[in-house]
Amino acid sequence: MKSVLVLGQGFVGKYLVDLLEACGIDYASTTTSGRDGTIKWCIADDVHNSTLPAAESIVVTFPLQGEVEARRLISGYLHNHRKAHGDTYNPFWVYLGSTRPFKETPSTCHTRPDLVAGGPRVEAEEYIVNTCGGCVLNLAGLWGGDRVPEKWARFYGDKDKLRNRLKDRSLHLIHGADVARAIDTIVSNRDKASQFAGRWLVSDEMVYDALQIFIGAEHIQGYLGELLEEAEVREMLNADKLDDIEMGSSAVTKRIDASHFWSQLQLKPKYPYTVGQPDAYSKPLM
């Protein structure tokens, strides 16, 4: 039996398997193509999960589309492996979600998600927490490597999108390597799994100013100059011109409080983000 099964060796999954290898933890991981020595697997094509090995902990890195899909994945997996390992076989499930459904300021692990905003993903999360006793990590904006927040300026390709973003400039981030470190801590303490069961909000505990990050893009500066011609925008920014805009963490409101999570893990994030600075992460030594 594997110690960890990673379903989906994507962005977070790659950081995680690098860390598991460095720590000497026996694992298996999947991709839809079977690349890089992974198991070729797709949830839609393997109803009974017959190609997946048994593991003590299972990390699901991709979104499950509702309670039905979550139930089908988990019940099919258990049905398949309890034949060989007995009815008491019960792996610990870790599922990665998003902080998008959390609307309170600030939101904590005690905040209920907005079910409408969360949609099917929250349905799956509720099933994993309430029925399976699993762990859901609702992640803030993921970054690391080529996934650089400055590049997200491209999502604001017109003035209306930028105007709406100016109403709430706060941005919460978490490096993929810090997510991997958190998951490694959880699965490495399988005997204490109940301490990590439930829903946790995960960020690096900082609050960033999206405008400060995106202002380096030429099109953002152009749109902002035009928007400052509007009285409503000038009042919103408390500035009449670009150089007068206050930017930085002091200019935004913290929306995500992840302190409960890091305290429970007795861990601290290692990779905060700094505008314009290179990513400090390097692959763990093997």
UniProtKB/TrEMBL annotation:
PANTHER family cross-referenced by the UniProt entry: KETOPANTOATE REDUCTASE N-TERMINAL DOMAIN-CONTAINING PROTEIN
Protein name, per record: Uncharacterized protein
Species name: Coemansia pectinata
Lineage: Eukaryota, Fungi, Fungi incertae sedis, Zoopagomycota, Kickxellomycotina
